[in-house]
Design goal:
Helices cover 58% and strands 0% of the residues. It has 8 helices and no strands. It is elongated.
Length: 141
């Protein structure tokens, strides 16, 4: 099941149960979803509202490494575990599963497309205080 289809189905289930008069806690118990997840689907007028907010222009953990992955993939290095180790050594903090999922459609196409420009990082007080993101990379959003 694709993530988009799964989210649409969850939205429909939550809306149907809400229409039956169930509250957030009852829907949570019946569906096994977290309370905030039920609340998010309940508040969304449509499944597209939930989907639109899922990324909302934020950078993903892999975005900074996509050009490197494309370059290596086009050079014939298609082993996901090897590419994961390479970017991990360069500071990637995400999971191997994210890298493998990103590479899956590249394998199907046989070559990497040009990566889309990354969404700008939003500068937050936490980043500036704890130094988790170099300020030279951060842009105001």
């Amino acid at each position: 099941m694709t993530g988009v289809r799964h989210q649409r189905e969850r939205h429909a289930v939550v809306q149907e149960l809400k229409a039956q008069g169930l509250g957030i806690k009852a829907i949570k118990r019946q569906t096994g979803l977290a309370k905030e997840t039920v609340r998010r689907y309940d508040r969304a007028a449509s499944a597209e509202d939930v989907l639109a907010k899922a990324r909302d222009g934020r950078r993903g953990v892999l975005d900074a490494y996509k050009p490197y992955l494309h370059e290596r993939f086009d050079a014939g290095v298609t082993n996901g575990s090897l590419l994961f180790r390479e970017i991990r050594g360069a500071g990637y903090t995400g999971s191997q599963a994210v890298v493998l999922a990103y590479l899956r459609p590249l394998r199907a196409a046989g070559r990497a497309p040009s990566p889309a420009p990354a969404a700008p990082l939003r500068r937050s007080r936490d980043c500036a205080v704890n130094g988790s993101v170099p300020l030279s990379v951060v842009t105001e959003g």
